Amino acid sequence: MAHRNVYLAAIMLSPDLKKYAIIVAGGSGSRMQAARPKQFLLIAGEPVLLHTLRRFHAFSPEMPLVVVLPETEIAAWQDLCRQHQCTIPHRVVTGGSSRFQSVKNGLAALEAEEDGVVAVHDGVRPFIDNVLLTAAYSTAAQRGTAVVAVSLKESIRRVRGGSSKAVDRSAYRLVQTPQCFRLPLLRRAYAQPESSLFTDDASVVERFGHKIELVEGSYRNIKLTTPEDLVLAEAFLLQESSVPKTS
Question: How far apart (Å, rounded) are the C-alpha atoms in residues 191 and 152?
Fold first, then answer.
């Protein structure tokens, strides 16, 4: 409960800025060993990407949502939206040859917007919740950046050549999404030339010279990557459906 109180305090302190989300869904499904892209796989009878969209829409129904998809998958997504009667307003844009280019295309869809906070999120992370989103958006509103991350649960070793060495896991974090930024800052950062060092949005903004603020993430905020993750996803959804809703 303590961390939820911190998040509530953050709401009181953060400026009232418009919110946006760019949902990047360019996975191929190779590690999932699936015949279709992993963002289109069904959990609890609905596509993963639809679950993700629903979480953002439930958090802020008026929030503009941009979905970035490979050009070859846009028609399939439109078919899925019809099949599952998706009524969540969102704009679909074509992705690029890299994640950097895909996010840049997503930002271009928001070119008419002057300011606000934009979240960049993996389409195959469907278990974000309102507490996490509140923390990320409010922290970015105050400080310019907010990257969701969790502590490591297990011991880690650094491998070099044929040897390995134990390292202090408390000095490391596992980075998740959403990664939230003030919109003008992210635009300027993505005006840089693309680099092989850019592994996520935080690395792009950090290279631009801005400090990255970490926000406590959730171990439920998994990225669906391998078949085992689908088992967890079904279990999470079953657990959520069994929890009585409070008024």
Answer: 33
